[in-house]
Amino acid sequence: MTQGDWKNLGWGAALLIVAALLPLTGDGYLISLGVSIAMYTVLATSWALFSGPTHYISLATAAFFGIGTYVMGSGIGYLPYWVLLPIAGLIGGVIAALVGLATLRLSGVYFVIFTLGLAEMTRQAVTWYQNQTGHKGTYVLTDLTDPDIYWQLLGLAALVFLLGWAIGRSRLGFALRIIGDDEDVARHVGINTALSKIALFVVSGATAAIVGAMIAPRYIYIEPSTAFTPMLSFQVVIMALLGGTGRLWGPLVGVIPFTLLWEAISSSFPNQTTLLLGLSFLAIVYLLPGGFVGLYDRLRGRAVKRSALA
């Protein structure tokens, strides 16, 4: 590890400790907001691990998240909570691997459409099963509080950041960057493009499933329309792209302002939240093509040029 790596690790640990102190304020609204920010940070960062370097836009987050909530809802009466978390991750990872084997040969809009359809197909399948068995939903009753869930999500976020840092410095991360630049070139130089993409898709899917399992007790009662809502997939994509996928911490920069704005609009104008999604898409396309990270890099590059010419 270089001196810069140790410095970044130290900053990350310091920010994590500060964030972990939030529940000590005792403010229920702040803690609830913290749970939302921590949840979206994990989802957007794990999404960017796969979609950032490969440029494959996945809208399957809601499918894996919903699977995680239903694993928790279905198993909480039979198994301990802490056993169900890795089970949710395992099931999410296996399904991601199967989906990846079937779809990662697709590219562009076809992959986007399939991943969007996956969430809807899963929701319809769960709805059909519940109708057949006479169930309309599932209760998830535990003694976990919002601070407990917040600390769990914070710990998972730390693991995802460490994993992303390790992948970025591995042969897998290098291979994914080449795939993102030109997949044909990557294939011709001997990179197993399918295996590389599936490996990161599994990480993203398993992480989203674990997040869904952690969040399930907060919902108390889950049903397909809330567990598999496609809005979640769009929110995660917008947050990651708004922050920028060029750096590991980029999605976090998008998550915080977007979540705060979403909460403000939801409380004052609950029917206008989709307008925020549309405006955010336009802002990303026309004003922030590389997100806040890209804007920061451009401004920094100009400052360096000006100082060199001075």
Write down the Rg.
20 Å
Discrete helix count: 14
Task: Choose one word for the global shape.
Answer: globular
Number of strands: 2
User: Helix amount, in percent?
Assistant: over 70%
Structure, explained:
- This protein is an all-alpha fold and 310 residues long.
- The protein is built from 14 helices and 2 strands, in the order H-H-H-H-H-E-H-H-H-H-E-H-H-H-H-H.
- The protein has a two-stranded antiparallel sheet.
- The longest helix is centred in the first third of the chain and has 27 residues, at 28-54.
- The radius of gyration is 20 Å and the shape is globular.
- 39% of the residues are buried.
- The mean pLDDT is 87.
What's the structural blueprint in terms of helices and strands?
Blueprint: H1 3-20, H2 28-54, H3 61-75, H4 81-103, H5 109-133, E1 138-139, H6 146-168, H7 171-181, H8 183-188, H9 193-219, E2 221-222, H10 224-227, H11 230-243, H12 250-268, H13 273-286, H14 291-309
Antiparallel strand pairs: 1-2
